[in-house]
Amino acid sequence: KKDLVETELVKDGDNAYYQNLPDSWEIVPLKNIVNYRIGKTPNTKNKNYWTNHEGFPWISIADMGKDKYIGRTTRKITNKAVEEVFKGIVSPKGTLIMSFKLSIGKTNLLGKNSVHNEAIISIFPYWDNNNVLRNYLYLVLPIISNSGETISAIKGKTLNSKKIDVLPIPLPTIREQQEINTKVMLFLRILEIIS
């Protein structure tokens, strides 16, 4: 797939995560394999934007849990907020999301069409056969993002867009990504049964 996206090797320095990788793997910056979108928070004082009834799911880091998919959210926004604040652009069901402020590297998949706040990004791989890359990134981004270069903010550590762009992703072949996904998810299911 090198012809689809410019591949740029990242220097691994002394980082132990990237030592002794198989020859078939490459280290690529995240920006070379995905596009991402940062979320927003509608004005919390505007009662026309928030609802306690049926509304559109708005995700905060507090909604990101251990389950793979996010189904319910603490807060919901109105269609007016979707149109005026998000300009009608929502992340579709199945989208990979990741936190990059305060709690860095939480990942989930959307259980329904949703929007989220500015501490979270929606991630869209440039190419993806049957969500193999999406599922692989779901597993590796929590590790990679926490080993990335963070900056200090008032309430804790954060990644800015430049730091997100250059997160070094160890990228195996699609076949190997699929094998990793299958084996890790099987292992996690076994752990759930045992605990």
Please give a handful of descriptors for the protein shown.
25% helix; single chain; four-stranded mixed β-sheet; Adenine-n6-DNA-methyltransferase TaqI, Chain A, domain 2; five-stranded mixed β-sheet; alpha+beta; 13 strands; globular
Brief sketch in words of this structure:
This protein has 195 residues and is of the alpha+beta class. It is built from four helices and 13 strands.
Unreliable sequence segments: 1-14
Mean residue pLDDT? 86
Label the overall shape. globular
CATH architecture title: Alpha-Beta Complex
**Could you give the distance between the termini?**
40 Å
Helix fraction by DSSP (H/I, runs of at least 4): 10-25%
CATH class: Alpha Beta
User: What structural class should be given to the helix and strand makeup?
Assistant: alpha+beta
Characterise this structure.
The chain is an alpha+beta fold and 195 residues long. The chain has one domain: Adenine-n6-DNA-methyltransferase TaqI, Chain A, domain 2. It contains four helices and 13 strands. It has helices spanning 79-84, 132-147, 161-165, 174-194, and strands at 26-29, 34-38, 50-51, 56-59, 69-70, 75-77, 96-99, 107-110, 115-116, 120-125, 151-153, 156-158, 168-171. The strands form four sheets. Strands 2-10-7-8-5 form a five-stranded mixed beta sheet, with helices on one face. The chain has a four-stranded mixed beta sheet with strand order 3-6-4-9. A two-stranded antiparallel ribbon has the order 1-13. Helix 2 (132-147) crosses helix 4.
